[in-house]
């Protein structure tokens, strides 16, 4: 599993890296099927767009194909469902969240020759379209609609407060390792919400290959072990956090947790 992070994520498309991540978290991920489906969609797009000579019109036709004919859409009813972060499920259900739908747009769009990049905007993942000699345009992968700089500023104000301002770095192209790291955190959060603790533990262990001594990730892993009734290991993780972050408000709560677990029988799995 840990060999995942020996891979060079910048040498592959984001969707490919996400599939590798998904497989490392859940071995039941249909990685091969998803790869074949991506290639099938690409071939279908090539045929559907073959007659388009103008590149801009071709890109608009690509968006219509993706969102209207193929029916990909943002999952408005269950945004935080972990299916939206597993690429095989996104391809199967035709539903996702900005980063998973954006990864599909990037994979197919770049293979079709369009000048698009992914951006980890502070509020959500977006896609940047940069025609030669023109100002960039931005697309919300959740619905395929263009978003103006004014709208992006409004999103930022909604998240950070009325004094928030749009900075150029907010619109820089993202590198794949950064996106994969955030994807992993999002996936872990979804699995925790669904109480799928064994898979969440896989996420936590993978995250700790990025930052082995991160006390907050170790604290989260301790919580997962606690839910799995592995109290002895949970105690060690909680104690590490308390030692590293004694002034954090969570430390007092964790001290009580450690004390309570020390009084219970140790369950070994």
UniProtKB/TrEMBL annotation:
It comes from the Bacteria. InterPro entries: SirB1_N, TPR-like_helical_dom_sf. Coiled coil: none annotated. Transmembrane segments: none annotated. Residues 34-184 form the Protein SirB1 N-terminal domain. Belongs to the UPF0162 family. PANTHER family: F-BOX ONLY PROTEIN 21, SI:DKEY-261L7.2. This is SirB1 family protein. It comes from Vibrio amylolyticus. The lineage of its organism: Bacteria, Pseudomonadati, Pseudomonadota, Gammaproteobacteria, Vibrionales.
